[in-house]
Each structure stands twice: as C-alpha cells, then as structure tokens.
Design brief:
The protein has seven helices and nine strands. The chain is α+β, with helices and mostly antiparallel strands and 237 residues long. The mean pLDDT is 91. It binds adenosine-5'-diphosphate and magnesium ion (MG).
C-alpha cells in the first residue's frame, strides 16, 4: 500500500501543515500495522497538537498528533515541570514521545478503571489512535458548547470520575474543565489526560482543588454545589 495519497490528503486538509519526519514515520507505522486506513478531517488544531478523524475498517477513529518542531520552550517546560519522565533524553522529540506515551497509558488505566474516556487503540511515537467520540455527522461537543439537558446527572458522573481517578487510578487530571470534557449522548467523556500527576505528587492536592473548582464553577449556573464538600468527598477514605 502506498501512503503518499494519504499524506497528501493530510497536507491538504490541514491547509498545508508540514509534518516533521518523526511524525510521518509514526503515521506510516500506524498505517502499516493497520490502525489507520485513511484520514478524513481535522477535528481540532491547537498549538500543541492536532486531532483528526480517520477511518479504520469502516469505523471512525480519532488520531491525536503531538507537535514536535513548533513546540516552544514554555510548552516543553509544562510537559516536564511536575513529572519529568524517567530515562528520557532531553531533546524535543524524546520528550514529546514520552508525553504521548504517558497520555496513552493514562487512557488505558482510566478506561480499565471504568472511567469514561476514549478507548485507547494504539500509540506510535508522538501519535495516539483512540476511539472517536461523536456521530458520523460530527464529533461530540465540548462540555462548554454542549446543550445540557441533565446538568445534575452530568455533574455527578464527573464527580464520580474524579473520585475514581483519585482513589482507584491514583491520579489527578490536572487540566480538568469544560474544555476537556466531551458530552456524548448526554454523558460526559473525559479527554486530554497527558498532564495528569500522581496523587502522591506534592502538587496533586493543588491541582485537584483547581479541577474541582473549575467543574463546580461551570455547574453552579445550573445548581447549588459546595466546592469543599465535593473536594472532601474525593479525598476521604
Ligand atoms: N477521541 C476523540 N473523539 C472526538 N473528538 C476528540 C477526541 N479527542 C479529542 N477530540 C477533540 O479534539 C480537541 C483537542 O483534543 P485534546 O486532547 O483536548 O488536545 P489539546 O487540548 O491538547 O489540543 C478536543 O477539544 C476535542 O474537541
Ligand atoms: Mg484539550
């Protein structure tokens, strides 16, 4: 199979984004091992990476590509500040690979613990293939943009996920907000789990407090919630 048409397509759907050699190699490997058949469109393009919808065996998948070349020092230091990966060479490529691996492993742990996240499928270098969340027509909206019919139910689910993440997976998301939760069929799906910290990390409590604060703030327009009560429930036991 020749990948050129797919890479050309990727080039055109991103309006000319140039992927560095390492990214192309990762994509080729994933296509070779049969995790991606073809790319469709970018779901999101950000400073740190892009997410595409792709097709594998007539099913949709989401492909998250972490940027390597354009990553700035500020971003890199964010990747490393609290939990520097062990045994990783200090060049951008190795650091970003380690970061993608961390997100992939976190997805796996959370998925296995019963926390609703996109099911992780494969990871190669700086690229993650995971379950696509959304319909054939469009990807699931972020919580901030979703039409919310059942705020109480969604809030309780998210609270339960935070608690499970802390108690069972022993991690704190550390970037949880209405920007990193999708709403699919009326239920929350947690995403973007690369920057989690272990609950044993000295910064963990601070991050957990911030996560809880963000979520409580978002939902307090729908209902009355006490931030400390939520935090204590997550921490107790
Ligand atoms: N599995 C997925 N299915 C559908 N859309 C996704 C999926 N993962 C991410 N997205 C979309 O891509 C955007 C960026 O993904 P995210 O993991 O938050 O990366 P970052 O915020 O670092 O760019 C999300 O806001 C969401 O809209
Ligand atoms: Mg995000």
């Amino acid at each position: 199979m020749s990948w050129e048409p797919e890479i050309e397509k990727l080039f055109s759907i991103t309006e000319g984004e140039v992927f560095e050699r390492a990214t192309l190699d990762s994509l080729f490997k994933l296509m070779d091992s049969g995790y991606i058949d073809s790319f469709e469109f970018p779901i999101s393009t950000g400073k740190e990476g892009s997410v595409f919808r792709a097709i594998y065996k007539n099913k949709f998948v989401a492909v998250k590509i972490y940027r390597i070349n354009t990553v700035t020092f500020r971003n890199i230091s964010k990747y490393l500040m609290y939990e520097p990966p062990r045994n990783v060479k200090k060049n951008k490529r190795s650091i970003i690979f380690a970061w993608a691996l961390k997100e992939f492993n976190n997805l796996k742990k959370m998925y296995e613990a019963g926390i609703r996240v996109p099911k992780p499928i494969a990871r190669e270098g700086n690229v993650i293939v995971m379950e696509y969340i959304g319909t054939a027509r469009k990807p699931a909206p972020l919580l901030k943009d979703a039409e919310i019919k059942n705020p109480e139910k969604i809030f309780r689910r998210i609270e339960g996920y935070m608690e499970k993440m802390y108690k069972k997976v022993r991690l704190v998301h550390a970037d949880l907000s209405e920007y990193n939760i999708l709403v699919y069929r009326g239920n929350p799906v947690i995403i973007d789990v690369g920057q989690t910290v272990s609950r044993d990390n000295p910064m963990a409590l601070k991050f957990l407090q911030r996560d809880v604060k963000n979520i409580v703030k978002f939902f307090s327009r729908f209902m009355n919630i006490d931030e400390n009560e939520i935090l204590n429930r997550i921490l107790e036991g």
